[in-house]
Amino acid sequence: MRPRPPLAAALTALALFAAACGTERAADRDADAGAPAAAPAADPALVVPDEAESPGPPPCPEEGLRLSAGQPNAAMGLREQTITLVNCGTEPRTVSGYPALTVLDAEHRPQDVKLVPNAEGITTLETTVEHVDATPEPVTLSPGEHAVLSLIWRNTVEGFDVPVEGVHLEIAPMEDLPAHVLTPKYPLDIGTTGELGVTPWQAFDREAP
């Protein structure tokens, strides 16, 4: 068999290479046609967090009233803690007077604390605490409306008695309603006085700052 001329051999090799490249490109096109296009990278500024990861309000209790503890205020040894009650249900609810309240320590043990209506003897009427001289009266809350009360005490430590520190509060909006445990952001440092002033429920003033 005679050897091919160099030129003929080169042309044959070039033709085979071109055919192989054409087949590879056709296969790539067929594969790309059946595959979805890659999604562009999302702009971090436009990414919306998953709703499941977004914190929401706690569940509404069966009685339709939800309690929460606000930010405490402190001045000259006088303390105030606001408790808010919201009607999270679908029907109007009425509360009246004072809550049923127990101060608990870190282990949820009841503490020996005397509840003083309207903080009589703990503070004076000149205090900046709102509703300290309020008269108990029924407050009807439509769905979404709030009522508030104040807990008032002094951080006084005398003698060698062990100071009371209320870490949790067990509160029922009224005597005949279920109690729920709240954990304020800061403990109630009631000291050795053993007294906690409580104002009655008052309608929340929506025009107040």
Walk me through what this model shows.
This protein is an alpha+beta fold. The protein has a domain of 139 residues: Immunoglobulin-like (Sandwich). It is built from one helix and 14 strands; from the N terminus they run αββββββββββββββ. Strands 1, 2, 3, 6, 8, 13 and 14 form a seven-stranded mixed β-sheet that branches. A hairpin with a 2-residue loop joins β2 and β3. The longest helix has 29 residues. It is globular, with a radius of gyration of 36 Å. 20% of the residues are buried. About 9% of the residues have low confidence.
List its traits.
seven-stranded mixed β-sheet, 209 residues, Immunoglobulin-like, alpha+beta
Write the layout of secondary structure elements.
Elements (H helix, E strand, L loop, with lengths): L5 H29 L30 E5 L3 E3 L2 E10 L5 E3 L4 E5 L9 E4 L21 E3 L4 E9 L9 E3 L1 E5 L7 E3 L5 E4 L3 E4 L3 E2 L6
Parallel strand pairs: 6-13
Antiparallel strand pairs: 1-3, 2-3, 3-8, 4-7, 5-10, 8-13, 8-14, 9-12, 10-11
